[in-house]
Amino acid sequence: MPREPYHISQIVADLLARTGVARPQATRELEMAWRDIVGGALADVSRPVRVFRARLEVLVAHSTAVQELTFRKSEILQKLNQQWPERRVKDIKFRVGPIK
């Protein structure tokens, strides 16, 4: 089954967000909500990257933090959807990567 083509505005927005040239207000709001939800220690080693198709992608500095975040995933989802209701998040994908 063929995929639907991406609109050029979505491609440009994703590129700008990934390179850090332009960070949408929603991303800043998500980062602030993330810090409140997971707390300082986990927020220092993780960073929400984007929401795509109702899935939040989060970069995490090391696998130990991924394990802790995965353990708390349902709690995080519930709190995230309470604090950030305009973007309904159904799942979270954690992956190890550099935190900037």
Structure report:
With 100 residues, this protein is an alpha+beta fold. The protein has a domain of 68 residues: GMP Synthetase, Chain A, domain 3. The protein contains five helices and three strands. The protein has a three-stranded mixed beta sheet. The mean pLDDT is 84.
Topology of this protein?
Layout: H1 8-19, H2 25-38, H3 40-44, E1 46-52, E2 55-60, H4 63-71, H5 73-83, E3 91-96
Parallel strand pairs: 2-3
Antiparallel strand pairs: 1-2
Helix pairs in contact: 2-5
Highlighted features:
single chain, three-stranded mixed β-sheet, GMP Synthetase, Chain A, domain 3
In one word, what is the shape?
A: globular
Mean pLDDT value? 84
- Which CATH architecture of the domain at 29-96? 2-Layer Sandwich
Sheet with the most strands, sense and barrel status: 3 strands, mixed
CATH hierarchy class name of the domain at 29-96: Alpha Beta
Query: Strands of the largest sheet, in order across it?
Result: 1-2-3
Estimate the helix proportion, in percent: 40-55%
* N-to-C span: 37 Å
Q: At the fourth CATH level, what is the homologous superfamily of the domain at 29-96?
A: DnaA, N-terminal domain
Specify the number of helices. Answer: 5
What would the CATH topology of the domain at 29-96 be?
GMP Synthetase, Chain A, domain 3
Task: Look at the helices and sheets and give the structural class.
Answer: alpha+beta
DSSP E strands, number: 3
